[in-house]
Automatic annotation (TrEMBL):
<keyword id="KW-0859">Xylose metabolism</keyword>
<feature type="binding site">
    <location>
        <position position="230"/>
    </location>
    <ligand>
        <name>Mg(2+) 1</name>
    </ligand>
</feature>
<feature type="active site">
    <location>
        <position position="99"/>
    </location>
</feature>
<feature type="binding site">
    <location>
        <position position="305"/>
    </location>
    <ligand>
        <name>Mg(2+) 2</name>
    </ligand>
</feature>
<dbReference type="InterPro" id="IPR013452">
    <property type="entry name" value="Xylose_isom_bac"/>
</dbReference>
<feature type="binding site">
    <location>
        <position position="266"/>
    </location>
    <ligand>
        <name>Mg(2+) 1</name>
    </ligand>
</feature>
<feature type="binding site">
    <location>
        <position position="307"/>
    </location>
    <ligand>
        <name>Mg(2+) 2</name>
    </ligand>
</feature>
<dbReference type="GO" id="GO:0000287">
    <property type="term" value="F:magnesium ion binding"/>
</dbReference>
<feature type="binding site">
    <location>
        <position position="294"/>
    </location>
    <ligand>
        <name>Mg(2+) 1</name>
    </ligand>
</feature>
<feature type="binding site">
    <location>
        <position position="266"/>
    </location>
    <ligand>
        <name>Mg(2+) 2</name>
    </ligand>
</feature>
<protein>
    <recommendedName>
        <fullName>Xylose isomerase</fullName>
        <ecNumber>5.3.1.5</ecNumber>
    </recommendedName>
</protein>
<dbReference type="GO" id="GO:0005737">
    <property type="term" value="C:cytoplasm"/>
</dbReference>
<dbReference type="GO" id="GO:0042732">
    <property type="term" value="P:D-xylose metabolic process"/>
</dbReference>
<keyword id="KW-0460">Magnesium</keyword>
<keyword id="KW-0119">Carbohydrate metabolism</keyword>
<feature type="active site">
    <location>
        <position position="102"/>
    </location>
</feature>
<keyword id="KW-0963">Cytoplasm</keyword>
Length: 434
C-alpha cells in the first residue's frame, strides 16, 4: 500500500449522505435500469494518462502537480501502478484504459522501451488478477515524442511509419494479454499544418494501409475485441484526417474496413468538430460503427479541448439516450478522458472528480432510460415521418423515377403544407426527465 490516498475511504452509494461526505448519490452499481445492473450498462473506466501521467500544465504554464511517482524509472512506474489500483479500489469502477507511454518509461532504444513496457504489463496483470479491475482498452501514444511531429502512420518518413507499426503491434499484444475488450487508435498528429508540404493522397493511403494491417494482425492473434478509431477535427494539428464520425466512415468504406472498425466518440472532440455529442453518437449508430465513448466536456468559453469532467446532466442524458437507442455498449464503455484543473492539487480532488462524474452520468443515464421507456420522443419522431410509411411515398423512396414523381405532382392533388416540428414542446418533454 502507498500513502497517497491515506485517510480517504472507499466511495459508497449513500443517497442520504451529508454534503461534506464523499459518496455516490445517484450511482448504485447494482441498481437495475432497463433490464441490467447500472454498472453493466455504464462500464466506467479511468484514463491512466490524465489521472496519473498528466503533470497539470496547459498551453501557457508548466507542471503544477507534484506526484511521488513522477520520473522515468521502472520503480516509479510500479509505484504509479500501485497508486492507480488503489484509486480503482476506492472508486469501485470496473475498468481502466492506458497508452503505452503512460505506464512505462521511455528507453534509449525501441528494444529497451519494449522491455520496460512488457515488465510493467506483467505487473499490471498481477494487480488486475488480485483486484478484479479490467482493461476496457489499450492504445499507443504516437503523438507526444518528437519523432511523431509529422504524424505516425501518415508521416513522410517511412522509418517513423515502421516504428509506429511495431509500437502498435506491441500494444495490441499487451491489450490482448490483459483481456482488454477494445483497442483504440487515436491519430493525435495524423493530419497536417499546411498543404504547402503535404501530399494528402499519399498520407491517406498510408493511414488506410496501416489500419488494414492492424485489423489483419488482430485476427491473426485471435483478439476478439473491437478496433476503434477516435475522431478529432483539429488540435494538435490544424486539420486531422479523422475529423468526425462521418469522415471516419468514408475513410473506412474506402479501405474496406466499415465492418471491421468502430468509433470511440469523445464529447469534447464532437464539440470541436462543430457537432453535439448526441449528433456524433446518432451518426455512428446510423452508420453501424458505434463502439465506445470518452466522457468529458469542454469549457465553452475556451477554444481548445479542455477535457473537464462532465457536470451537465441534460447533456449527458441526451448522449446516453442515443447510446441506449443504439443498443447500449457491447465491448465499449464510459471512459473518463478527463483531467483535474491545474489548481486541483490534492489526492482527494482526484477521487471527488471521478465520483462526481460517475454520479452525473448515473443521473443522466437514468433519465435517458426513463425517456426511452416512456417513448414520447420516439412517438413524436414516428408521427413526423409517418407519411413515408404510406403509398405513394413508399414507392417514391424506393422504385419511382424522378420523371414518375414529377408526373404525379403535375397531375395535381399534391399540395405540401408545412407542419410544426414542435421543437420547444419536445425540449419541454426532455426537461421533465432531467
Amino acid at each position: 500500500m502507498t500513502n497517497f490516498f491515506k485517510g480517504i475511504d472507499p466511495v459508497r452509494f449513500a443517497p442520504d449522505a451529508g454534503p461534506d461526505t464523499l459518496a455516490y448519490r445517484h450511482y448504485d452499481p447494482d441498481e437495475m435500469v432497463a433490464g441490467k445492473r447500472m454498472e453493466d450498462h455504464l462500464r466506467f473506466a479511468v484514463a491512466w494518462w490524465h489521472s496519473f501521467a498528466w503533470p497539470g500544465g496547459d498551453p501557457f504554464g508548466g507542471q503544477t502537480f507534484e506526484r511521488p511517482w513522477f520520473g522515468d524509472t521502472m520503480d516509479l512506474a510500479r509505484l504509479k501502478t500501485d497508486v492507480a489500483f488503489e484509486m480503482f479500489a476506492l472508486l469501485g469502477q470496473p475498468y481502466f484504459c492506458w497508452h503505452d507511454a503512460d505506464i512505462r518509461p521511455e528507453g534509449d532504444s525501441f528494444a529497451e522501451s519494449k522491455r520496460n513496457f512488457e515488465e510493467i504489463i506483467d505487473y499490471i496483470g498481477e494487480k488486475m488478477d488480485a483486484q478484479g479491475t479490467k482493461l476496457l482498452w489499450g492504445t499507443a501514444n504516437l503523438f507526444s515524442h518528437r519523432r511523431f511531429m509529422a504524424g505516425a502512420a501518415t508521416n513522410p518518413d517511412p522509418e517513423v511509419f515502421a516504428w509506429s507499426a511495431a509500437t502498435v503491434k506491441n500494444c495490441i499484444d499487451a491489450t490482448h494479454r490483459l483481456g482488454g475488450e477494445n483497442y483504440v487508435l487515436w491519430g493525435g498528429r495524423e493530419g497536417y499544418e499546411t498543404l504547402l508540404n503535404t501530399d494528402l493522397a499519399r498520407e491517406r493511403a498510408q493511414a488506410g494501409r496501416f489500419l488494414q494491417m492492424v485489423v489483419e494482425y488482430k485476427h491473426s492473434i485471435g483478439f476478439k475485441g473491437a478496433v476503434l478509431i477516435e475522431p478529432k477535427p483539429q488540435e494538435p494539428t490544424k486539420h486531422q484526417y479523422d475529423y468526425d464520425v462521418a469522415t471516419v466512415y468514408s475513410f473506412l468504406k474506402d479501405f474496406g474496413l466499415e465492418d471491421e472498425v468502430q468509433v470511440n466518440i469523445e464529447q469534447g472532440h464532437a464539440i470541436l468538430a462543430g457537432h453535439s455529442f448526441e449528433h456524433e453518437l446518432a451518426t455512428a449508430a446510423a452508420l453501424g460503427i458505434f463502439g465506445s465513448i470518452d466522457m468529458n466536456r469542454n469549457d465553452y468559453q475556451s477554444g481548445w479541448d479542455t477535457d473537464q469532467f462532465p457536470n451537465n446532466v441534460p447533456e449527458v442524458a441526451l448522449a446516453y439516450y442515443e447510446v441506449l437507442k443504439a443498443g447500449g455498449f457491447s465491448t465499449g464503455g464510459t471512459n473518463f478522458d478527463a483531467k483535474l484543473r491545474r489548481q486541483s492539487l490534492d489526492p482527494n480532488d482526484l477521487i471527488a472528480a471521478h465520483a462526481g462524474a460517475m454520479d452525473v452520468c448515473a443521473r443522466g443515464f437514468k433519465a435517458a432510460a426513463a425517456m426511452l421507456e416512456d417513448g414520447g420522443l420516439e412517438a413524436a419522431r414516428a408521427d413526423r415521418y409517418a407519411g413515408w410509411d404510406r403509398e405513394p411515398a413508399k414507392t417514391w423512396a424506393t422504385t419511382a423515377t424522378l420523371g414518375e414523381i414529377a408526373a404525379e405532382v403535375e397531375k395535381g392533388g399534391i399540395d405540401p403544407q408545412p407542419r410544426s416540428g414542435r421543437q420547444e414542446i419536445l425540449e419541454n418533454y426532455v426537461s421533465r426527465f432531467v
